[in-house]
Every structure is written in structure tokens, then in C-alpha cells.
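Follow-up to my post from last week.
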Amino acid sequence: MALTAKFVKTQELLFELRVADVMRRDVITVRPDQTMTELRRILRDHRISGTPVAAGDELVGMITIADLIAFLNSDEEEALIGDKMTANPDSLFSDQLLVHAIQQFDATRFGRFPVLDPRSRKLVGILTKGLIIEGMLRAMEQAFQEEEIRQYRASHIFEDMVAEYKEIYLTYELVGRDFDRAGKASTQMKRNLKRLGIRPDIIHRLAVASYEAEMNTVLYAESGVMEFRIAPEEIVMRLRDRGPGIADVEKAKQPGYSGAPEWVREMGFGAGMGIPNIIKCADRIDLQSTVGVGTTLSVRIFTGAGANRAGDEGGGT
Amino acid sequence: MTLREIVEKLDLQVHAGAGRMEVTVARGYMSDMLSDVIGNAPIGGLWITMQKHKNVVAVAVMKSLAAIVLVQGRVPEEDTLRAAEEEEVVILGTTMSAFALAARLHDLGIAGD
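User reply:
Got it. Predicted complex:
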């Protein structure tokens, strides 16, 4: 689980990085009118095995140590770089995704690519496999460090604690009509679940169920207590509210049924989708209500290895 | 396609989350009913709406949405902006209608379900 999550993160990172993020900007270049003897010194001094050939900031070719060896093995005493270089070389654009650049390395087996600005087509950098690895490691380190430590600690709670039964309870107090804090509990809970290392699709199902339940309380009830019981194999959300209650629970489970006043509808709530949405996300649901007293909603979602993938199998009790 | 590319191509306004433009977006959803969005919007998608009150931010967080796009020149309320910055939610804006924006997004390859 933890390992798969890491790989997904690495993939995400790959799709976020662009050539410009990892390329080297202070490119060593040579001119076409310089000699191969000069090239030999430049490659040696900078410990590089190839370099772009530029006229001004215009890329005109690439020259590598292989070209130098071929020249040294020839009878020529001296030659110009311009005559020995590969003209019109393959290049990358600085705004290209790094994944695409990696594919280009793979396809051509070149060791380095000059990087051009996509608009001006001027030479702005160079990319090597080494720079890609370096850039990836740097980005990974930045992205993972803090959150990883938190997640690591949280997701190991169940493994690290020794007991016959292991459960974590997280509880939130909800206040009716408090639109300033509405959704806050669900937002915090979503972050907690992530830190606990819960599978992302399960997090999203729980997020939907808890947000709908929280909003029902904020919209219709005076107050409520939302409690999450997190166990190794399941998460149970229980919301008890004090309020008007639901007159017809079975009707409320049907899409489109809503007792919402106009102002609630204007905010985009009260479409009669709240409880149906919760049912869609839950593996088990229990809804009890007493008019004039309040409503208790229990939502159970399985989190073990065999847990539902989509959530569309979740139905009534 | 990244948010940055979408913003540039459709000349969208960035109300919040300018630093989170490198997210890749593939799908979108259009609705002003929050429960509809919560229930049916694709995870990580783009949400087109007229709703500009603070509760849209929590909806975006719940569905891990890439961005909210307010249409017809609507501007997020002050506390919506604050919540968006706090929860790292991107809010964009356009003077286009919801329909026009959806059509343009579709042309860019952003699909619906």
C-alpha cells in the first residue's frame, strides 16, 4: 500500500516536471569557427563529453567526444568544429514535459540534448540523463520530505501499537447554520485519512459521505457530533444531530426528495441528492430519525484489501 | 493539458492558487448544485459554476478538483478567496458563459463523462 502510493506520487511528479526545471542553464558552448584542438581542451577542462555548437545564441550543431576521436584518428592536422559537428541536431523545448524528454532519450540513445526556448528557438540549456536524475531526486526530496514523515508516522499507528483491538476515534462538533465553518470537519478529516495512508479511492468515498452528512447538519439541524471510528479493516462515520429530524426516511433516500427552503437551494444545496450520494459511497448505511428530536446516520466503509474499488456497489443495509 | 495551458489558451483570470498551475487536467464538470458536484464530478477535474460563496472551496477539496472556474465575470467573495488560499484550491474566472467555456474546453480535449 505505502509502496504503491509512493509510485503514484513519483508518476505525478514526473508529469509535473518540465525540461526547464531540471536542465542546466549555464551551457558551455563552442563556435563553429573554433578548431578541434580547442574543442579537445574545452572538453577536458570542463570534463564533458559533448557540447552544443552555437553562433551567437543560435544553435547550429552538436559536437561530441566521438567526433573528436574520429578526427584524431584521421590524417588531418587541424579542422574546424563547424566541419566535424552534427548540423541541425535533435533538440528539446524548455516547456516540454520531462516524461516526453525521457522518451526521446530512450528512442535516440543520445546522451544529451540541447534545449531551445519554444518561442524564440534560442539555445537556453542542455539536458543530460544525469541532470534528469539529479532534478528528479531534488524534486522528490522537496515534495516528500515533510508530508512523508507525517504520513509514515500516522500510517504505522496500527502496526506500531500492540493491542487486542485497535481503533482510532476522531470527533467533530458541528453547529447548525454556521456556514463559515461548514465543510471544515470533512476537509480536516480528508487530510487525516491521507496521513493514515488510506487508499485514495476510499478517501474520496468517505469525503463525499462526510461532506454531505456535515452539510445536512449545518443546513437543517441545530447541532451535531460527527465521529469517525477508524479500525484496520473499516471506517465507520456516525453523525448524531439535534434538529427537526426527517419525517420520511425512505423518501429521503430517494434522489430528488428535498425539504430545503429557497435560500438553501440558492446556495446550490437541497437538490435532494445528499443522502443518495452518501448511499452511493457507503458499503453499509443506517439512517434513523425522530421528528423533533434529531437524526442519526451511520456509514460504514470497508478499507481492507478486498474493499470495493468504485463504491457503486454500496447500497442500503 | 495543464491548468497553465488552459489559462493561457482561454485567457482565464486567476483568482486564487497561481502557484498551482502545473496540475494536469483531463475532465470537467458543470453544475451549480453542490450535491451534484460532490456526487458526480470526476476526481481531479475542472468545475465550471456560477456559485461564488465559500462552500465551493470545501467541495473542491472533497473531490480533489484541479480548479473551480467562475463564469460570466463572477468574482469570488472575500472569504471564499481566503478559504481557497488556506486549502490550496485554485479559483479561475472568465466572462464567458458556462456553455461557451465548456465548448472551448471540449475543443482543448477536456472531456466530460
